[in-house]
Design brief:
The complex is a heterodimer of chains A (108) and B (116).
Chain A: E1 4-7, E2 10-13, E3 19-25, E4 33-38, E5 45-49, E6 53-54, E7 62-67, E8 70-75, E9 85-90, E10 98-99, E11 103-107
Parallel strand pairs in A: 2-11
Antiparallel strand pairs in A: 1-3, 3-8, 4-5, 4-9, 5-6, 7-8, 9-10, 9-11
Chain B: E1 3-6, E2 10-12, E3 18-25, E4 33-39, E5 46-51, E6 58-60, E7 68-73, E8 78-83, E9 92-100, E10 102-106, E11 110-114
Parallel strand pairs in B: 2-11
Antiparallel strand pairs in B: 1-3, 3-8, 4-5, 4-9, 5-6, 7-8, 9-10, 9-11
């Protein structure tokens, strides 16, 4: 199975900061990767699909890039409501679905 | 509008089984796979398995071999996930998710607590 390695596992940032989270796949997944935001007690919410397509209704400060084995989620200017945990998900060889380990974004 | 609504929280004793439901609305139920994902407290997301509601075909992660059963009732657009031989490590929030490529819509989650 494809393994997804996400980094960092946590980070501290301030409102207005630019934040970058990386996911690395153990083998190529083309662009079959999504990013999710999860807040405590809530289900994950999809932010990005097909590596770089913004989910309808998601603010444009979120962006995704990459293809193959290296992917990035960028928040251009961190807002208070963005403090959450973020996960990547690959679906190239679905089934299975494979999640990254998560990145917790905390307030500095 | 797409909604997945799951059944309520459960408390089970070790060795028992639990069956979680996931009622879909707002789209043709048989047109998209339903997947199940769980999350222990403070931990990441763990994929459990999938079901094609049209054919009823299922598959699951190896670690749940022999313990998980996924079914559906197309007449009421509802998917079910049953986990047997529960142990304390199965205490988690269980989510259903619609999958079209990636998982686009999720249920609200069902907390299953396994405790003697």
């Amino acid at each position: 199975d494809i393994q997804m390695t996400q980094s960092p596992s946590s980070l501290s940032a301030s409102v207005g900061d630019r934040v970058t989270i990386t996911c690395r796949a153990s083998q190529g997944v083309r662009n079959e990767l999504a990013w999710y935001q999860q807040k405590p007690g809530k289900a994950p919410k999809r932010l990005i699909y097909a590596a770089s397509s913004l989910q309808s209704g998601v603010p444009s400060r979120f962006s995704g890039s990459g293809s193959g084995t290296e992917f990035t989620l960028t928040i251009s200017s961190l807002q208070p409501e963005d403090f959450a945990t973020y996960y990547c998900l690959q679906h190239h060889n679905y089934p299975p679905l494979t999640f990254g380990g998560g990145t917790k974004v905390e307030i500095k | 509008q797409v909604h997945l609504v799951q059944s309520g929280a459960e408390v089970k004793k070790p060795g028992a089984s639990v069956k979680v439901s996931c009622k879909a609305s707002g789209y043709p139920f048989t047109s998209y796979d339903i997947n199940w994902v769980r999350q222990a407290t403070g931990q990441g997301l763990e994929w459990m398995g999938w079901m094609n509601p049209n054919s009823g075909k299922t598959g699951h992660a190896q670690k749940f071999q022999g313990r998980v059963t996924m079914t559906r009732d197309t007449s009421i657009s509802t998917a079910y996930m049953e986990l047997s031989s529960l142990r304390s490590e199965d205490t988690a929030v269980y989510y259903c998710a619609r999958v079209y490529g990636s998982a686009d819509y999720w249920g609200q989650g069902t907390l299953v607590t396994v405790s003697s």
